[in-house]
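Summary of Year 1 activities. Much of the first year was spent building the evaluation harness for sequence design. The harness presents a backbone, in tokenized form, and records the residue chosen at every position. We chose the following record to illustrate the format because it has been used consistently in internal testing since the harness was completed.
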């Protein structure tokens, strides 16, 4: 999806932050590039800063995905980012708001 659509999805789903998810909590909504190489570069930046919006800036022109970060504390401890997609949360019965693109 393009940047503007991703931002709308992120804004419309802020109500899910803090919700329990699989024994943990949804801590953050991030936007990141779908391209594997760009995703790796995004994660490298995110690991140093954790400011997802700032880290996304070099990739705004690429195809993007919106994801929900789960258990961010575990990420800080292990360096492994646990996240799930809009679609997955919707399938699991969460009140995810999406727009047609």
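For this record, the design step produced the sequence shown next.
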């Amino acid at each position: 999806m393009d940047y503007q659509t991703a931002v709308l999805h992120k804004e419309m789903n802020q109500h899910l932050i803090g919700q329990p998810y699989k024994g943990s909590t949804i801590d953050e909504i991030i936007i990141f590039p779908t391209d594997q190489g760009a995703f790796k570069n995004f994660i490298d930046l995110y690991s140093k800063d954790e400011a997802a919006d700032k880290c996304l800036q070099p990739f705004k022109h690429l195809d993007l995905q919106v994801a929900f970060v789960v258990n961010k504390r575990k990420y800080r401890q292990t360096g492994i980012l646990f996240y799930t997609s809009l679609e997955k949360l919707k399938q699991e019965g969460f009140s995810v708001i999406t727009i047609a693109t």
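The CA atoms of residues 78 and 100 lie 36 Å apart. Quantitative recovery figures across the full test set are reported in Table 2.
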